[in-house]
Specification:
single chain, 562 residues, mainly beta, seven-stranded mixed beta sheet, six-stranded antiparallel beta sheet, 5 helices
Length: 562
């Protein structure tokens, strides 16, 4: 299927459109031509004639924009292969114009993305290719289109077409919605009914009916004649919960604006009119990648901010970005936060629910069970100590120690010490390793960052990563590019890089007030706001991992006191 780019005005065409916009001149679109040459976009403005023209097409009419934009109009053109001797591909099409009192010149050019193939007429097979070329004309009132005479229908042709298709109805035709006098006898095979579907009694039915049936029929007829309504089937104003003046009709309910489907390759930077834009099996320019997607874009606008939220098949949460600031620049695409998966801090910076990983509660150093046995302390085992199912107290496994001091006189190495039916006993080294690799609270009191509450961190000594999570209140208007958010100097000696980004909220609004649009950067041992920050006024900041990552993290140099 052929596909063409938007039209580009030549230098002469642009100057004419500007004069027409000011109402100082008028012009006509007079001719359309085609060429097999590939015309570079960068050369169009300087053209005065389409190079190596192959055909002169036919202008068949005008096609204004549906939205009533008076600065742009469409010219409907047609190319036919009749008498064409050599096949070619329509790589470019040119529109020519004539200004009042001036010569004909090249006004605009469109180039092909996927050109239409126009075969020669050697096989006597007729091929037609039509298209509508939309061009900027300044104002439609200053422009007219010269339509080819063969595109018009003659008066004689129209009169003959009407006569050939005229239908003459008989004078005796009866209309069901008009009063009619029926002079003949009508027979109803299935019986006649009234407007409510009730059977109409015939003279025979009345003559054969008993007194009760006739009385019931009379009552029914009296009700119909008097116009008395059935009270049980009438809606009374007293029964309405709202007065009629407060009831909203369907015509008063605004409907969401659903725009035409987005074409493949459309630049999302240009989609800024509020509404819903569906798309199916397309790739989108200025999106996260060039893959093919199905879904829709929701665009909102207000207060100098334009937002885009893209919902796609296969993605649990949509991606979001915002256009704002003095230059109306776009932020980066980010995943919207799932409130059910974000850690919340309240009061004295304690989590309102127990933090979990894969639905398993995090093990904090302060949460170790009180009855955990430690080799550095006395432990009273209520169950027997065994080894391979055997009591430790066997004669060949006794431990020699001083009966007065309790000091073991000989060193003993327990390779498989268990309690309570085979449960392993943790050593102090085991506990230290668990504590170092577990999530734990870090108190930032007295540090140099703007947030001095508590956050969660986890140390990965193998990769030299420090993972961190934060969702907490900060002083309003305290953020700008380079601001130190978190100071980790009590944990690490320095940071070389950080991975993740920040989201800011105004107070406790559900949706982000401002997507910062920049990865977190580092300065010394501090996490800072990087380039791309464009918002202010945030009073709550949350960390958000990079796409396809589970947590934010920074690469550290060394641990403090390591």
């Amino acid at each position: 299927m052929a596909k063409y780019n938007n039209s580009v005005l030549t230098t002469a065409g642009l100057a004419l459109a500007n004069r027409a916009a000011k109402g100082v001149t008028k012009f006509k679109i007079t001719k359309v031509t085609s060429t097999a040459d590939v015309v570079a976009d960068s050369t169009i403005t300087a053209l005065t004639k389409l190079p190596n023209e192959v055909q002169v097409g036919t202008i068949t009419g005008e096609q204004p924009l549906p939205d009533g934009d008076g600065t742009i109009t469409g010219t409907k053109v047609l190319f036919v292969n009749h008498k064409l001797q050599t096949s070619y591909r329509i790589n470019a099409v040119g529109l020519y114009a004539v200004e009042e009192g001036g010569p004909e010149f090249l006004y605009a050019v469109i180039t092909a993305v996927e050109p239409e193939f126009m075969p020669d007429f050697s096989d006597q097979v007729l091929m037609e290719f039509g298209m509508t070329i939309y061009i900027v004309v300044g104002q439609v009132e200053s422009m007219s289109i010269v339509v080819a005479p063969e595109s018009f229908a003659t008066v004689a042709y129209v009169d003959k077409a009407i006569a050939d298709h005229q239908v003459v109805f008989p004078k005796t035709l009866t209309y069901s919605d008009k009063n009619e006098v029926i002079t003949g006898t009508w027979q109803f095979k299935n019986g006649a009914v009234d407007g409510e579907g009730n059977a109409i009694a015939t003279a025979k039915d009345v003559s054969d009916g008993d007194a009760e049936a006739l009385t019931s029929a009379k009552d029914y007829a009296d009700t119909k004649i008097s116009g008395k309504a059935d009270d049980s089937k009438v809606v009374h104003t007293a029964d309405m919960r709202k007065p009629a003046s407060d009831v909203v009709g369907l015509e008063d309910v605004p409907q969401a604006v659903v725009h035409s489907a987005l074409a493949s390759g459309v630049d999302l930077n240009t989609v800024v009119t509020p509404g819903v834009y569906p798309f199916a099996g397309v790739h989108l320019t200025n999106y996260i990648d060039n893959a093919t997607y199905w879904g829709y874009v929701v665009v909102t606008s207000g207060g100098g901010i334009v937002t885009q939220k893209v919902h796609t098949i296969g993605s649990i949460l949509p991606l979001y970005r915002m256009q704002s600031g003095p230059t109306m620049s776009w932020s980066r695409w980010v995943g919207t936060a799932d409130d059910g998966r974000v850690a919340h801090l309240y009061g004295s910076n304690n989590f309102d629910t127990t933090p979990t990983v894969n639905n398993n509660p995090l093990l904090l150093a302060s949460s170790l069970p009180s009855d955990l046995a430690r080799l550095s302390q006395d432990a009273n085992f209520t169950a027997k100590l065994q080894q391979n199912g055997q009591d430790v107290a066997l004669a060949n496994n006794t431990i020699a120690r001083n009966p007065n001091t309790g000091v073991v006189s000989e060193p003993v190495d327990f390779t498989k010490l268990t309690v309570n039916g085979g449960k392993s006993v943790a050593t102090s080294d085991d506990l230290k390793s668990v504590e170092e690799s577990a999530w734990r609270e870090l108190d930032l009191s007295g540090t140099s960052g703007i947030y001095t509450g508590k956050i969660l961190i986890k140390i990965d000594q193998v990769n030299k990563y420090v993972y961190f999570m934060m969702n907490a209140q900060i002083p309003r208007n305290a953020c700008s590019q380079g601001t130190k958010i978190i100071d980790l100097s009590n944990v690490v000696t320095g940071l070389s890089s950080a991975h993740g980004y920040l989201q800011g909220w105004l107070d406790d609004r559900e949706m982000p007030y401002n997507i910062q649009g920049s990865t977190i950067t580092v300065s010394g041992a501090c996490l800072t706001i990087g380039e791309g920050y464009s918002g202010s006024g945030a009073s709550r900041i949350a960390t958000e991992a990079d796409p396809n990552k589970q947590y934010c993290y920074a690469v550290y140099d060394d641990l403090v006191n390591n």
